[in-house]
Design goal:
It is found in: Cell membrane. This protein is α/β, with parallel strands linked by helices and about 575 residues long. The protein contains 19 helices and 10 strands. The protein has 3 domains: about 230 residues, ABC transporter transmembrane region fold (Up-down Bundle), CATH 1.20.1560; about 160 residues, Rossmann fold; about 70 residues, Rossmann fold. Helix content is about 65%, strand content about 10%. The protein has a 6-stranded mixed β-sheet with strand order 6-7-8-3-9-10, sandwiched between helices. It is elongated, with a radius of gyration of 35 Å. The chain starts with a helix and ends in a 6-residue tail after the last helix.
């Protein structure tokens, strides 16, 4: 972990400085009490040898009192350290989730969902464990210093002989443990890949089964699992190398002080009580040294987790400090001015396109797949930024205003509108704040969804599966439509909303859309004849951008690209094929 990572981690702990200070103070008191108890025990043992009953009773009560006090400090040190870890974990998790939600879509697209989930669910607990270990490490370091100082006071010779091997053991341990960091980092990346595969399996279950892809995905999972197994075995093997070091740290001092300490006691260079206290203090040094060495190893494994969490926190959020959009009703609701866009900064999706969508107009975007029709809608929502040119909403360049104020005026519906795994009423209510049940039912009725919802076991309180599981495609679309109706935005963006539906469901949805979008500014990515026959403006795209604009009648009379598309697709199947 470099200095900048440490500094950032320390600064991120600023809200917890008080609880860290209290916890550290209690841990330090606990360490001092443990050492002080050994002083009392030394006096008790010496008084027994010297047959001094008054001294015996005095220091026996002192030792008992300190032991009771030590129980109290042990309780509070555990309580405050756990409280700190839980608070940090809770607040940081919420901060990460909130941060991810506020990231631009184009940033999120660079990360797989499995990777982001892994950073929150796997890397954060590793960081919390590291912080808890840091607190314990400080307390153990103080215990080592206090215990060592008292041992030197009892017998400098015995202390020197007992702990001459400790620095050597530490150096050997540190050298052996360095590769753990490298393997831990690789292990985290592989764990993210496993999450990605599971996400693909669950999200694409229908495709997986329909195309018999089980073996392919299992092979991918097996290959990554083998890599994880290998790295885990490597880490276990490296940790196994540390066991002899622990034995040296723990057993060598015992063998030495028993032999040499007895010799010093016989020659009156230390008391029997001092030897007895020294024997306990050895464990107050050897035990914490072992804990600190383990912490050093786990700290190296924590470095990748810290970096991966800061990497997410460093991602630039959507700008929300700009002025809010002010609606100018004299301007067109939507206007593109010489707009140029590319996803990667190199390959242009379209260049220098310009068009307007006037108030209460119905604009259809047509053209072959991959031309950029759906991208137009995503740009209006501010999911991506133009390379050049402008997009204006009611006279405001959306690059100059708070994008959230733009989205308040826009509602967006695609062919696969996502439903959350909550109740139907909650899904519909997401379109508006502080909504009543009456408003939800009214929106559902307008969307032709009320009838089938009422027939469900729990009606509007029916829990639906992730992504709308348990409902048909048409039912999901109608619930999504009710959500759109409830929002009642002035600009409606439709991305082939009927494309995945059968003829009956399409007819119901198309009829509903036509009713609820009156007096709205609608831009639709056209898929079937029913969605564009009454359009006030049809915009035809090809790989070079916009090539034709006009009504259905004018474009058919022009006998250009639109007529060819119509005759090749619509004319051949009366609206049944996509263009």
């Amino acid at each position: 972990m470099n200095k900048s990572d440490i500094r950032r981690l320390v600064l991120s702990l600023k809200p917890y400085y008080l609880i860290i200070f209290v916890c550290s103070l209690i841990l330090l008191c606990d360490a001092a009490i443990k050492v002080r108890i050994q002083y009392g025990i030394q006096k008790v043992m010496d008084s027994v040898v010297n047959k001094n009953s008054s001294v015996f009773i005095k220091y026996l009560w002192l030792s008992i009192g300190l032991t009771a006090l030590g129980m109290v400090t042990a309780y509070f040190s555990k309580y405050f350290s756990e409280k700190f870890c839980n608070l940090f974990n809770y607040n940081t998790r919420n901060k990460l989730i909130s941060h991810v939600q506020e990231l631009p879509v184009y940033v999120l697209k660079k990360y797989s969902s499995g990777d982001l989930i892994s950073r929150i669910n796997n890397d954060l607990p590793i960081l919390v464990q590291f912080l808890n270990g840091s607190l314990q490490c400080v307390a153990n370091l103080v215990l080592i210093i206090l215990a060592s100082a008292y041992m030197i006071y009892i017998s400098p010779k015995l202390f020197l002989v007992t702990f001459i091997l400790m620095p050597l053991s530490t150096l050997i341990y540190d050298k052996i443990n360095r590769p753990v960091q490298e393997y831990s980092s690789k292990l985290m990346k592989d764990s993210s890949k496993v999450n990605d595969i599971l996400q693909d399996v669950l999200s694409g279950m229908y495709v997986l089964k329909a195309f018999k892809l089980e073996k392919i995905f299992y092979k991918k999972f097996e290959d990554i699992s083998k890599g994880i197994k290998f790295k885990n075995l490597k880490i276990d093997k490296l940790n196994a190398y540390l066991t002899p070091i622990f034995l040296i740290v723990k057993l060598a001092p015992q063998l030495i002080y028993i032999t040499y300490g007895g010799y010093l006691a016989i020659h009156k260079e230390m008391s029997i009580g001092g030897l007895f206290a020294f024997s306990t203090l050895v464990f107050y040094v050897a035990g914490p040294v072992e804990i600190i060495l383990n912490f050093i190893g786990s700290a190296r494994g924590s470095i990748p987790a810290v970096k991966r969490i800061f990497e997410i926190i460093d991602l630039k959020l959507e700008e929300n400090n700009k002025k809010d959009l002010k609606v100018n009703y004299e301007s067109d609701p939507i206007e593109f001015e010489n707009a140029t866009f590319s996803y990667d900064g190199k390959n242009k999706v379209f260049q220098n396109i310009s068009f307007k969508a006037s108030k209460a107009s119905y604009t259809a975007l047509v053209g072959s797949s991959g031309i950029g029709k759906s991208t137009i809608l995503k740009l209006i929502c501010g999911f991506y930024n133009l390379d050049d040119g402008k997009i204006k909403v009611f006279g405001n360049d959306i690059a100059d205003v708070n994008i959230k104020s733009v989205r308040k005026l826009v509602t967006y519906m695609s062919q696969e509108s996502y439903l959350y795994p909550i109740t139907i009423s909650e899904n519909i209510a997401m379109g508006k704040e502080n909504v009543s049940m009456e408003e939800i039912i009214k929106a559902a009725k307008l969307a032709n969804a009320h009838e089938f919802i009422e027939k469900l076991p729990s009606g509007y309180d029916t829990l639906i599966g992730e992504g709308g599981g348990g409902l048909s495609g048409g039912q999901c679309q109608r619930i999504a439509l009710a959500r759109m109706i409830l929002k009642d935005a002035e600009i409606v963006l439709l991305d082939e909303p009927t494309a995945a539906l059968d003829a009956k469901a399409e007819a119901i949805l198309s009829e509903t859309l036509e009713k609820i979008t009156k007096n709205k500014t609608v831009i639709v990515v056209a898929h079937k004849l029913a969605t564009i026959k009454n359009a006030s403006n049809i915009i035809v795209f090809d790989k070079n951008g916009i090539i034709e604009m006009g009504t259905h009648k004018k474009l058919m009379e022009k006998k250009g690209a639109y007529r060819r598309l119509y005759e090749n697709s619509f004319g051949a199947n009366k609206g049944g094929l996509a263009i």
